[in-house]
Each structure stands twice: as structure tokens, then as C-alpha cells.
TIGR03619 family F420-dependent LLM class oxidoreductase (Streptomyces chlorus), 302 residues
Amino acid sequence: MRIGFSLPQYGVMAQELGKLADFARQAEELGAGSLWVADRVLAAVNPSVGYGGTDTIPWQMHAALDPFVALSVAAGATERALLGTSALIAPWYPPLLLARSLTGVDVVSGGRLIPGLGTGWSPEEYQGVGVPWKERGARLDECLDVLEAVWTTEPVAQHDGRHYAFPAAHIGPKPVQRPRPPVYLSGFAPASQRRAARRANGILPVAVPVRGSAFDADAVINQPLQQVRRLAEAEGRDPAGIDAILRINPTSESTMPEIADIVLRTADQTDVDHVFVDLVYLADQGVDHWLELLQQTLELKR
């Protein structure tokens, strides 16, 4: 089981760039198998949609370091840990610029990028970046088309899409990973599952520790993954080629044994072999505290 952790990207640590490099380096030395970032541009004071089914957005998300900056710092501070995004909100970005940024991370890290993409949940963030909320699915689909073309062909053919267009062009460098980095998609709605079945290498389910309740690996991992694999087979794809990376989202009340229980049940009851722990709700505790929790999690798993 590969166990990863989020980078200190949010809250007070969003302005402590030097500590981010130290965290990445020490996390890898302690045994972290991957390091992860997310994507935020604003936290609305009065959101129309709150985070995680609530009416608000956690204060930790009031400040967020740019994910590409965080990944670049981590790439320079580490040698082995994979570098993931869970998830970049792909419709916010012109696809050529997103391809350039993702390729850059893959190149400077020596081929360690795991791009996880999604559509997000905040209409106000779409308003802030000037992208219509109702176009998010169509823009993600077109973005996947462009990424595939840029990463796997040379020269890249002319693209005339609904939202973006560019002429036939030489676009380099190419990613280190061949034929391209593995793309993971988030989302749980039927349309998201169908997209993952057609386009993705895997999905990004989420588990939240619940006090007094055992982790239900079937509901969170097995059933969604089996559904996407069935849909992929119907599309003519090999269902075995689709996997999952589980994000564990502890709350500020979660305990280390609860986190370890999810890791162990995932290892025992699913065929998923990669999880990561998102420490965002501990953003006020400092890097040293994060490293302590990271070490405790790895020790409990062992």
C-alpha cells in the first residue's frame, strides 16, 4: 500500500513556502509515497454551495497556495514521491496552458506526476475566473481532448472545439511519462462516472472518518469502481486498466486510529493500493505537527 499526504498548501501555511519544501523532503524521508495538492481560487463569504454538504467553506480554505507552485517546490525537494492533484479544476484553465503547466511538473520531477482533474463544486469560483458554471462538463471533456493531443502527438493537429481553437502546431516538451501521465477524474454523479469510464486511468473516491462507525469500503470504493469498470468495458476498454486512489479527509476531530482503520480496510477489502491523507483541517497546527501526524499514520499502518 502506497500512502501519501497533502502538502501544506492551505491556511497559515500558504504563506510559508520554505516550510513546504522542508515538509516535502522530510515526508519522503519518513516514507510518504506521494504528495498532493488541491485547487482553490476563492472562498465566498456567503457561498451558494458550501463545502462537503455544509453551508459554509472552512476557514482553512480562505488562503490557498497555487497548486503548480506547490508541486514545483515539492518536485525540487524530493526524488521518489509521486506528485498528485486531487483535483485540479480543469475547466478554469485554457487547455494549452494547463497542458504546459502539467507537463512542466512531470518534466522537472522526472516523470512523477499524477494529474487528477475535476469540475469542482463552487459556482462563485467559476464566476471569479470568468467561466460559465453550466459549461463545466463540456469544458472538461474538451480539455481532455487537448491534453491527449498535446501529450501524445507531434506536431499537434489543428483543434477547432466548442470553446477553444488553435492551429496545427509544435508543442513541447512532452511529458517524461509515456504515452502520457495517467489521468484520474473525480466526481460521483452518473455523468462523471461515464466520463471516467471513457477517458480516465482511474477515479478519486473520498473517505471521511466517522466517529463510532467502521469504514464501508464497498460503498466508498468497490461499488463506484465496479460501476466505472462496467461502463468502461461497454465502451470497449479493458476494465482492469482503471483503478482508484483513495483520498482520506479527516476532520479536526478525527483520530489516528480512525485514519489507520480506513487504510487497513482499504488494503484488506479492496484492490486499491494507493491512498493519501488530506491534512487540510490541521492547517493551523504547523508543519512540525503535520510531520508528527504523518509519522504516526505510517507507523499505525505498519
